[in-house]
Amino acid sequence: MTSPHFLGIEVSTQQVKVMIVDDNLHVLHKCSVLFDTELPEFGTKGGAHVHADGLTVTTPTGMWVKAVDLALAKMKSAGVSFDRIVAISGTGQQHGSVYWREGARVALRSLQPDRALHDQLKDSFSIPDSPIWMDSSTTAYCRRLEQALGGAEKLADVTGCCAQERLTGNQIAKIFHTMPEEYARTERISLVSSFAASLFLGDYAAIDYSDGSGMNLLDIWTRSWSPDCLQACAPGLEERIGLPVASYSALGAVSSYMVDRYGFSADCKVIAFTGDNPASLAGLRLDRGELVLSLGTSDTVFTWLDHPRPNADGVNVWVNPLDVDAFLGLLVWKNGSLAREKVRNACSGGSWDTFISQLQSTPPGNGGNMGFYFYEREITPSIVGVHRFDSQDEPVHRLKS
């Protein structure tokens, strides 16, 4: 008997990645699609567009669709046996939102196998540019949400954290207030994870509890949408986001489009997609008492929690993707790999080898000199700019070499 295969896909900030494993977790195939270099027609930098105000950050939704097309085409060219894949799941960058326009569900359900997804779904989004986790433009809506819930601590008691600019509920509130006509034409709002799942399901995929926890909308104790939070953000929101499900839920069989175009088995199951941080907890098989530091486009620290005490200090508490009665505790820093790359480019001619050599030639501690590089407004703490200090803790414009 041939062993079953499993497909994982991630729609991250800078790329789409796919991986196929067998039932022993041996990697059988992997590939990626880099947004900036392989889809240059969308004009992204680091997978996103930073707007003129320096606060608004979006990504073209159609680029994600086209990247999935390209990833599947690469797999087909590589001779992947799609018919041996028994289940599909995946992850998405957290907090980003996708706005499906009226009629998009019909388009998803009637995809034609002789045409690419991007070609058939290009007119399916009421807002063509998705707000993503790097956005910091929703401060006013954060304060409104906290006020509606009785303060930051009250909001954290319900949703696991205080109002934060990147969290999806505040992004939706901004869309409703600044683009009311587009909001009115929106029939469904997905997270990036549930959006990606929808492309394989051929229908709207449910948001999972764990990724849904990062919206400032989910009551993490009841695992249902908070009526007060929904009302504070936008009217008609519950019907637009649908009912949440456990992160390990089977959503249904893969779409007939995927069967006919790529040769997936009609019995292949689509399992709920989740956010990249909850997926990291699951993928690392994290045990209680262990702490993970993840260095990526954003940097995170997370751990398994059984009895959390949410507060307004910036810690995020979300429903655990592996156990709905447990939780995930998380801290996030926005200025991660992209900030490190900027420092490398400015100081080391764009070469990591040069950067490492410079680092090794410097004594540990750098003589007490230090720099903090917040090119984008940071989450924890809320600060922006480059801040350098000499060995006397005096601020300086530049450190001596």
Shape: globular
Number of helices: 16
Main beta sheet strand tally, sense and closure: 7 strands, mixed
Q: Report low-confidence residues grouped into runs of 5 or more.
A: none
Radius of gyration: 22 Å
Strand proportion: 25-35%
Q: Could you tell me how far the N terminus lies from the C terminus, measured between alpha carbons in angstroms?
A: 64 Å
Structural commentary:
- With 401 residues, this protein is of the alpha+beta class.
- Helix content is 32%, strand content 25%.
- The chain is built from 16 helices and 22 strands.
- The strands form six sheets. Strands 1, 2, 3, 6, 13, 14 and 15 form a seven-stranded mixed sheet that branches. The chain has a four-stranded antiparallel sheet with strand order 16-17-19-18. Strands 4-5-9 form a three-stranded antiparallel sheet.
- Strand 21 and strand 22 (395-396) form a beta hairpin.
- The radius of gyration is 22 Å and the shape is globular.
- 43% of the residues are buried.
Topology:
Blueprint: E1 5-11, E2 15-22, E3 27-34, H1 35-38, E4 49-50, E5 57-60, H2 61-77, E6 85-92, E7 97-101, H3 104-109, H4 117-121, E8 125-127, E9 129-131, H5 139-149, H6 152-159, H7 168-178, H8 180-184, E10 186-191, H9 192-201, H10 209-212, E11 218-219, E12 224-225, H11 227-233, H12 237-241, E13 250-253, H13 256-262, E14 269-271, E15 274-275, H14 276-283, E16 291-295, E17 299-305, E18 316-319, E19 327-333, H15 337-348, H16 352-360, E20 370-374, E21 385-389, E22 395-396
Parallel strand pairs: 1-6, 6-14, 6-15
Antiparallel strand pairs: 1-2, 2-3, 4-5, 5-9, 7-8, 7-10, 11-12, 13-14, 16-17, 17-19, 18-19, 20-21, 21-22
Helix pairs in contact: 5-6, 5-7, 5-11, 7-11
